[in-house]
Amino acid sequence: MIASNNVLAGIRRGWNPTRLAGSAPTVRVQPSRSAIANNAEVDSIANDGSVGGAFAQSTSSLRPLMRRNYYGSKHVIDLDGSDDRLSGPAISGIAPASWTFIAVIDLDGLASPGADPWRDAALLGDAGGYIALTVRDNSGTPQCGAYRFRSGTQAVYTTISGPGTRQVICAAYNNADGTLLAQAGLNAPATNVGTFSTTTGGAAVIGGFGPTYLNGKILELLAWGSFLDGTQRNAVIAGAQAFYGA
Fold first, then answer.
1. Three-state DSSP state, 47
2. CA distance 206 to 57
3. Which domain holds residue 48?
4. Is the pTM of this model over 0.90?
5. Which among 8, 17, 81 has a CA at the least distance from the CA of 224?
6. 23 vs 114, which has greater pLDDT?
């Protein structure tokens, strides 16, 4: 899919997800704005989104590492795929009903699907296991998934690039019509429509819920407490691709 002229014009004005989406994200985690030292543990990183707060980890052995200037002047959070994770503000404030999660990542590895969709490695989700943007290796096919709890079919997946590639992935849910979608870059999203639970629980989590955790690097993580339509999503994704070389 080719970005529209309007999208390209917006990108030329600089990387600004709020302008590109038409609304401010509730979550914006930007490693490149952090002052954490190179190779130091990430005990806490600010959420520059509208709900504020931070994503933090009190246990030293569970903290990811900061890699400064990993891609030119861009920093990343490096999660080891073993147990690294960060907890943040309540998911009810981040994604109260509809939501859109967008992540700029470079994976180091992918695990096989978990016993349940929410057990896959998660870029962002909630501690109650109701919603998530996940990644997995499905019999040799790398995928990202959008998960929303309900009985029966609970997730939708689309193919992504494998480890070692900077890329932008997305999951979104529209509470108005039950559309759940997973999107890789500017490709057409995979969708699943159904009646999903509206319950969300606990704190927002970066990295996963166990036993599978994210193995890779996060360049930026974004969330909106609304469903961004295709034009809005593609504007943000194209902007991220241009800014991060993804």
1. coil
2. 10
3. 5-244
4. yes
5. 17
6. 23
